[in-house]
Amino acid sequence: MRGQLRHLLAVMPLASIPLGIIPFTAQRTVWPLEAYYVHDDTMAVVETPTAEITVTQPREVAAYAKAFAGLASMAVYGDAARALIQATIDALVRFRAFCC
User: Fold this and answer.
1) What's the domain of life for this entry (predicted)?
2) Which of 4, 19, 20, 27 has its Cα between 20 and 30 A from that of 12?
3) What share of the chain is helix, strand, coil (3-state, %, to 5)?
4) The whole model's pTM is what?
């Protein structure tokens, strides 16, 4: 997991990859229930434990876009996101030193 977190730190400076982190302390306005991807306001792909669902009905795609906007508004970006990722890496290192 530390390697994955370090990779996030490495790609964060890329302009094409806006990376936001939702802190545990964030006031929740939206709770993600499943993974989904919105493609150009024309399609959303939803992954459930048993199937992948393609949504193309404009009203439903808009609902996924609205949920994403809510999640994005709870996230922190830039230095604040980097600090959260680094704090997690540090905690994993401390945990490993303590337990193993």
Assistant:
1) Bacteria
2) 27
3) 50, 15, 35
4) 0.77
